[in-house]
Write a structure and sequence with these properties.
Blueprint lengths: L2 H6 L11 H6 L2 H11 L2 E4 L8 E4 L2 H9 L4 E2 L6 H6 L14 H15 L1 H23 L4 E2 H5 L4 H9 L6 H12 L8 H24 L5 H7 L1 E2 L2 E2 L2 H32 L1 H9 L4 H12 L4 E6 L3 E3 L2 E3 L4 E5 H4 L34 H18 E6 L4 E2 L8 E3 L1 E6 L1 H6 L1
Parallel strand pairs: 2-10
Antiparallel strand pairs: 1-2, 3-7, 4-14, 5-6, 7-10, 8-9, 11-14, 12-13
This protein binds protoporphyrin IX containing FE.
InterPro entries: Cyt_P450, Cyt_P450_B, Cyt_P450_CS, Cyt_P450_sf
Protein name: Cytochrome P450
Family: Belongs to the cytochrome P450 family.
């Protein structure tokens, strides 16, 4: 990135990272480069009703904090909004906001349902379902890639894993989007809260049914599991199922959609993929890095910690910006180039350390399924209008993407 562009980026001291609008207004690549260069461990001032917090933008610092669950806790929340409120009502019960022994116990229990071996039969289903949806999209002249294709994929998988009735899945997708992000600035935080409550209520009814009549789905596993002979509490069952629905859906959708945009914008990379010069796995990793759907996660310091040349005080909120770390020039060569053959590519899209994403394998499976389906079935991608961006300081991505997908002749003949 030329120096002039760096200078044109807003001064870190002038930015309000609590405001979703900031992420729509700025050139994020330039903004984060300036943070990394000038203020890598940056103190973000307090707002009228919220405390100040640390903004960590370099890869090495983010990894150091992710790794260190002794001095940084997840139990006060892991997303800026909840961290600034000072507490997370799911603390100590839901995996992502639980530390210590209970975290390990619940994580080990849930990992059994998410290992590559156990998920092997699910993988075929993801590929099949992706091809079916893409097949319908190439058959029409214009499609909304988000609404017509992507919105139906991860929830379909999570729905099958948790045995959620098919008719209820679209509602869950909509609630998820409202919980984690918003379609526009008009929607209020109150609506996000309502959506979260709708999901929780929905799952608790389902969990009660499964406890009475268990099946072989993940919700039944949680509802009937025991740790040291004791069943999980109702809250643990509901909140951890909720975290699968929430964690498994929106981020995955955002990576798949952002991946298509990146391939359409970088025709040379699209050709490398089509020609077989690069593997679908390598393209998947670059799409994940390039899109980094979860822009940040966070922690609260338990003791004073020296980071860079700053002292983080016990009790301070610390935010780790994956959206910056994944473009850190100390780790990635030409980080602002989309390179489907990039290697190595040790991004932190799924975090790092003890809370490393439980669904990383499944997230990758979804992106790879789309990459392979696009390679086999689509000859050309044309964006038909500007993508509609989400309004959020946590999840970045798109809620609408009008495109035309021209079918490969071979696919055309089959139809
Ligand atoms: C944790 C990102 C897909 C479930 C995380 C973390 C990140 C992340 C960054 C670490 C949070 C932290 O350190 O505080 C993503 C992205 C995905 C994705 C970008 C898709 C591209 C999934 C899927 C599932 C899932 C498919 C469900 C099967 C979880 C859970 C945790 C987690 C339960 C908490 C793990 C723990 O605290 O031990 N995810 N995730 N995620 N993710 Fe994902």
């Amino acid at each position: 990135m030329p120096v002039t562009e760096l200078e044109a980026a807003p001064d870190p001291a002038s930015l309000d990272l609590t405001d979703p609008q900031t992420f729509l207004d700025v050139d994020q690549h330039a903004m984060w480069r300036r943070f990394r260069t000038e203020s890598p461990v940056h103190w973000h001032p307090a707002g009228p009703a919220s405390p100040g917090f640390w903004v960590i933008s370099r890869y090495a610092d983010a990894v150091a904090v992710y790794r260190d669950n002794k001095r940084f806790t997840s139990e006060k929340g892991t997303v800026l909004t909840t961290l600034l409120q000072g507490e997370d009502s799911a603390a100590g019960k839901m995996l992502a906001v639980t530390d210590g022994v209970r975290h390990r116990e619940i994580r080990n229990l849930m990992l059994k349902s998410f290992s590559p071996r156990v998920l092997a039969p699910v993988v075929d289903g993801v590929h099949r379902h992706t091809r079916e949806l893409l097949g319908a999209a190439v058959a029409s002249d214009r499609t909304d890639f988000v609404a017509d294709v992507v919105d139906h994929i991860p929830m379909h998988t999570m729905g099958d894993l948790l045995d959620i009735p098919a008719a209820d899945r679209p509602r869950l997708v909509e609630w998820n989007t409202r919980t984690l992000s918003r379609h526009s600035s008009e929607e209020s935080e109150f609506e996000s809260l309502l959506a979260r409550n709708e999901i929780l209520l929905y799952i608790s009814e389902l969990a009660a049914e499964r406890r009475a009549k268990p099946g072989d789905d993940v919700l039944s596993t949680l509802a009937t599991a025991t740790i040291d002979g004791r069943p999980l509490s109702d809250d643990e069952i509901v909140l951890n199922s909720y975290s699968l629905i929430l964690g498994g859906d929106e981020s995955t959708r955002m990576s798949i959609t952002g991946g298509l945009i990146a391939l359409a914008d970088n025709v040379d990379q699209w050709r490398r993929l089509k020609s077989g010069e690069v593997t679908s796995e390598s393209a998947t990793e670059e799409i994940l890095r390039w899109t980094t759907p979860a822009m940040h996660f966070g922690r609260r310091a338990l003791v004073d910690v020296e980071l860079g040349d700053r002292i983080i005080r016990a009790g301070d909120v610390v935010t780790l910006w994956n959206a910056s770390a994944n473009f850190d020039e100390d780790v990635f060569t030409d980080p602002h180039t989309f390179d489907v053959g990039r290697t190595p590519n040790k991004h932190v899209v799924f975090g790092h350390g003890p809370h490393f994403c439980l669904g990383a394998f499944l997230g990758r499976v979804h992106v790879t399924a789309m990459v392979e389906a696009l390679r086999a079935m689509v000859a050309e991608v044309t964006l038909l209008g500007p993508p509609q961006r989400l309004y959020s300081n946590f999840i970045q991505g798109y809620s609408g993407l009008p495109v035309a997908l021209r079918a490969e002749p071979a696919v055309e003949e089959v139809r």
